[in-house]
Amino acid sequence: MYFPLLQINSSELNVILMAIIILLFFFIVIFLYNNSLADFVRSLRYPKLDYEEDLFWNSIIRWKWVKVNGQYELDETRIEKICPRCQHNLITQQQGDIHFLFCESCRFISTEYYEGPLKEPTADQQFRAVLKEEVSAELRKSGIYD
Ligand SMILES: [Zn+2]
User: Fold this and answer.
1) Residue 85 alpha carbon to ligand 1 centre in Å
2) Separation of CA 78 and ligand 1 centre (Å)
3) In which element (H, E) is residue 25 found?
4) What does the pLDDT look like over 55-101, one tens digit per residue?
5) How far is the CA of 102 from the centre of ligand 1 (A)?
């Protein structure tokens, strides 16, 4: 085929069509990712940000990351300790030097998250310190560093 008005032959047209198809493909990809593009790029740069939940001490623990001085750190104000049986929030409890999580709803008791005299001022602060160490250890196991 020859298109006299456009002054192009069919192989040139094929190249142009291919270029248009490739451009459309990229526009569609960008469109689909548009809302989550920032999140997508962020998680490529900081893969640990996708890690926000794990099973520790038989309990479901969820947390969020917060940017502090350009670094993402575990946000101590946004930690959830969830009962694996009834989904209620767990509280920190201690018996002597044994520290564990407890469900006031179904009486679930976790395995101990800490044993010994507190290094932090309170049991809750001790829990957060231990959790940070556990999360860091899991990230290192997965080859993810800050
Ligand atoms: Zn429970």
Assistant:
1) 5
2) 20
3) helix 10-33
4) 999 999 999 999 999 889 999 999 999 999 999 999 999 999 999 99
5) 8
For residue 89, report the distance from its CA to the centre of ligand 1, in Å: 8
Start-to-end CA span in the chain (Å): 58
- CA 113 / ligand 1 centre spacing (Å): 17
**What's the angle, vertex CA 143, arms to CA 140 and CA 145, rounded to 5?**
65
pTM for this predicted structure: 0.72
* pLDDT single digits (tens) 93-112: 999 999 999 999 999 999 99
Cα–ligand 1 centroid distance for 58 (angstroms): 12
